[in-house]
Amino acid sequence: MPELRRDPVVGRWVIIAAERAKRPQDFVGLAGVPENAGRSACPFCAGQEDQTPPEIMAYRPDDSAPDGPGWTLRVVPNKYPALQIEGDLDPRGEGIYDRMNGIGAHEVIIETPDHEATLATMPASELEAMLRAWVERMEDLERDTRFKYIQIFKNVGEAAGASLDHPHCQLIATPVVPKRISEEVAGARGYYEYKERCVFCDIVRQESEDGRRLVFADDVLVSAVPFAPRFPFETQILPRRHEASFKNVVEEEIKHLALHLHLLLEKINGLLDTPPYNLVLHTAPCGQDDLAHYHWHVEIIPKLAKVAGFEWGTGFYINPTIPEEVASDLRNYSPVETLRTY
Amino acid sequence: MPELRRDPVVGRWVIIAAERAKRPQDFVGLAGVPENAGRSACPFCAGQEDQTPPEIMAYRPDDSAPDGPGWTLRVVPNKYPALQIEGDLDPRGEGIYDRMNGIGAHEVIIETPDHEATLATMPASELEAMLRAWVERMEDLERDTRFKYIQIFKNVGEAAGASLDHPHCQLIATPVVPKRISEEVAGARGYYEYKERCVFCDIVRQESEDGRRLVFADDVLVSAVPFAPRFPFETQILPRRHEASFKNVVEEEIKHLALHLHLLLEKINGLLDTPPYNLVLHTAPCGQDDLAHYHWHVEIIPKLAKVAGFEWGTGFYINPTIPEEVASDLRNYSPVETLRTY
């Protein structure tokens, strides 16, 4: 059973993943090599459905059976879950320390049967289906009152923490609101109490008017480099319409978000030679859909810099790129395809 | 001039390091290869003193001239500083955003002339000298009232952010108290207000009595795996005597800290095949030496795991090791040398 433990100083919870427990030799030498064994052994490819736990949901033709081929998207439990779905939290103390059982959900969203696809190359229909699956899984999991937050994220490339190449994202439902989310919601509340405006709405407004950090904007969404990004080529996508939870996204936003993701990844891949990256959805904690001060958004962090001692010590990041230059580079980059003549 | 920018939601400051500014091509292909060009070209080796900016201080025989050989330890300004020493902060707004000039100090402490040395192999005298240099630089820089925090840290190995092999640590003095430090001090204050005891003193007490997470303890210091570590094989060293600032460390503590660093690194290197790591000193903000609730300590984080989307999104860490097992592995590991017969 995984366990949640709380740092007694800063209150940060960590997951001690006993099911995934590693021994010292697991970190030495060849252990660093990714598990990717190519397409033939890929558990997420069509025809290999028996390599995953039984599917939770799938988009597939009406006449195709669960856990067989024919699907266009599958959601399955993670085979090595960081948190366990069955059981009670059973919070308890141990002297000055606090712990509870590692209860939660850990799912994998297999975005497409195409092993070689990427967000930059997938057709719009597949990107949109992935986003609709996010909504469906959030709606379902939020009914379980043990869960306080649902984190959807995507790791691409070994340096960004991916252990399989096949296009997929992950979902982890946690039984406590994570520290980073509490801080973001509290920071946004502070701003709202002072100004009576949503800080994210203000960011959308200022970035649209200013233009120097914009990468791509339309009537529905704004893709921009943050004013104070932690990492080189970090970008964010914000909806113009105020909405705390991604669960309440509308169809028009899904279509535009698919387009923004495609364009941003195409530019990032072209400019930076397809770097590893993390994609993170920020959304309101469970049951807090009506927050006037919070506003869902998506963050993309290419893995280009090493996090070092100064950052771990202080939480202060040194970014060796200038946000306005990065935005200009991304804006001006045209994918090679558009220059080809055929 | 580097610039400090504040995230409008969570209030985190970042350093936009214009002096180090990189272009997209700097992140592609060979740019990832470390700059280490071997001993002959090492700017930190004896005889290459003209490759660094003029020294701020050094431990050297009385008859040896500054910026020449003969030294046993040198402190020099970082040639590519993240922050600049001259100037005023000049804080200013820009719509909803805040920025100020990137004023601060960024120094390099060259621990020894021996290019091949490590904390695990350096003689006690050199380790102690390194720690005394930390104190001297803190005392000097804290006189500059523009500085609010002094972060001392060490990156070893390219994956941990080091760009040079020669043994060195770094110091960055920042003009704002970093977020992670404020959180730690605030968390410790909350505990103190409730219990009227220092949380770190309580950690020392509970770990000493419990013993399961201890790696090495003596009358002066405790080296232990934290109860809720973020990373595999993360360890911390805490002094038994309550003291907020490392600046006020006593000679006995320096001697014991040198020994603990040596032993811990010897065990970590042996067990994990000399992994990259970060070492971070946690100490009180400038001018807050008398905090009853804060307590300096040292953190060692071997670079074994990738930080991925879930961690960036939530600040929630998944640790695939069990702290009590890690402590037991470290406790039981005896360096190979002691087994040799010669």
List the helices and strands and how they pair.
2 copies of one chain form a homodimer.
Chain A: E1 3-6, E2 13-16, E3 57-59, E4 73-77, E5 92-94, E6 97-101, E7 105-110, H1 124-141, E8 149-156, E9 168-174, H2 179-195, H3 199-210, E10 214-217, E11 221-224, E12 235-239, H4 251-272, E13 277-282, E14 297-302, H5 309-314, E15 317-319, H6 323-332
Antiparallel strand pairs in A: 1-2, 1-6, 3-4, 4-7, 5-6, 7-9, 8-9, 8-13, 10-11, 11-12, 12-14, 13-14
Characterise the protein shown here.
The structure is a homodimer of 342-residue chains. Chain A is α+β, with helices and mostly antiparallel strands. Residues 30-34 and 338-342 of chain A have low confidence and may be disordered. The first copy, chain A, has six helices and 15 strands. Chain A has helices at residues 124-141, 179-195, 199-210, 251-272, 309-314, 323-332, and strands at residues 3-6, 13-16, 57-59, 73-77, 92-94, 97-101, 105-110, 149-156, 168-174, 214-217, 221-224, 235-239, 277-282, 297-302, 317-319. The radius of gyration of chain A is 21 Å and the shape is globular. In chain A, 25% of the residues lie in helices and 21% in strands. Chain A has a ten-stranded antiparallel beta sheet with strand order 3-4-7-9-8-13-14-12-11-10, with helices on both faces. In chain A, strands 2-1-6-5 form a four-stranded antiparallel beta sheet, with no helix packed on it. Chain A has a single domain (3-339), classed as HIT-like (HIT family, subunit A). Chains A and B meet through strand 2, strand 8, strand 9, helix 2 and helix 3 of A and strand 2, strand 8, strand 9, helix 2 and helix 3 of B. Strand 15 (317-319) of chain A pairs parallel with strand 2 (13-16) of chain B.
